[in-house]
Structure formats: C-alpha cells, structure tokens
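Side project, low priority. Logging it here so it doesn't get lost.
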Amino acid sequence: MDITPLMWSIALLLLAALGVPLVRAFTVTREDCEGPVGTFINPFLLAVYLIALAMGLVIGWDHYQQAGADASDEASTVIDVYWGTQAYSPEDAERVRSAARDYVAAVTEQDWPRMRREGELSPEGATAMTGLRAAVEEAAVGNGMSEADRIAALEKTSTLMHQRMMRADSAGESVPLGLTVTTALAGLAVVVLPLAMGVRGSRTRILWGGVTALTVLVSVVVLLTLDNPYRGLLEAGSDPFDEAVAEFDRIDALPPPA
C-alpha cells in the first residue's frame, strides 16, 4: 500500500494538533519579542527549517535523478545482452532472447509496481534475472564462441545483476527520517511563534501566519513525496525498458549474420 497519502495526513494533523494548542497556551510578551525571541530564536528556527528543507529536497532530487540514470543504464545493458546473441547458435540465441524479454516484462510489470508500493523489488524479477543469467551461461559454454565473446557475454550479465542491485538500493532509499522530522518541527515553530507574538488584534499577522502555515505544509508534503523516487510528484518511470523492447524488435528484424 502506498503510505504517502497517510504521511501527508499525519503531517497535516501534526501541524493542526500541535500548533493550535501552542498558540493558545503561550503568548510572547512585547519585551520577549524585542528581546531574544524576536532577535535570535525566531531567526534561528527559520534558518534550521530552511537548511533542513533544502537538504531534504537536494537528497530527494538526487535520488530521483540517480533512479532515472540507473534505469537507463540497466535497460542499455539488457539491449547489449540481446544484441550479443548474434554470436550464439540459433537455439541458444532464441533461448537468451526469450529470457531477456521475460526479464524486461518482469521489471515493468512486477518490479515497478512493487517499488512504488513497498520500496523493494519483486521476486518475479529476481527469478527472471536468474533465468537470463542461466541462459547466457549455458549459451556461452561449448558452442564454438570465441573466448572474447564468451567473457563479454558473462560480464554483461554480471553488470546487469549489479545494476539490478543498485535499483533495489534506490527503491529503498529515502530522505532520512530525522531530517524530515526536523523540517516538520522547525516549520511548526516558524508557523506558531509569529502567531504567539501577537495573533490577537492583528489581521495582518493572521493572514501572513496562514500563508506561512500553508507554505510550510506544502514544503513538508513535497519533501515526503520525494521519499521514494518511484512515486510521488517526481517519479522515475520504466520508459527505458519500454524502449528496450522496441530495440529488441528492431534486432529481431535484422538479417542473420553471415
């Protein structure tokens, strides 16, 4: 189950449940406003919020960018494996090509939905990867291939397995929980403190306090959507693997090597 909407709801309830009682319970005097609260504490909390938010957004964006690059690299390696079957016997080539198609299908139909929901890869994808590697290893033994072609074929499947593990790491990566909590709590303080410093009798403070609250809430929600690069506002899609299938079809249409 996608837990992101639940996290959004928790963030909203947290701000509402903690902010309102704090505003009512604590009123900052004029002396405090002109003293350490207004001159040091409030700017410090704002700085903490902005720094934590910026760090979280940068980490989340980097995860998204890396996830997209990893998908492109993995799809490119599968194409290389498929292309390399021109050096195999017809029977071996058909077996490896079928295994490569099964792997890509498992990635797009099983891995991607599971990465969105649970942040991990699917057992079906792992099984398809094992089948592809076994097919390549069988084809690379005793079929008259040159040593260079044999080594290249095995290296490609090893590279593909490594790239799959990298994708598993990307699916499990997230913005550190402590950073998200820091952003939310510092943002809460940024919203509450100005209201406590004179909410009564000032429509301007109420207006800008509401704007600040909305800005903080939106920023925390955006940060939560970057928790997994395969879901949310930004989403690393499986387009490179769809393009790999099109490339498979193009390779199949080529005349057999002389």
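Brief comment: The mean pLDDT is 79.
Revisit when time allows.
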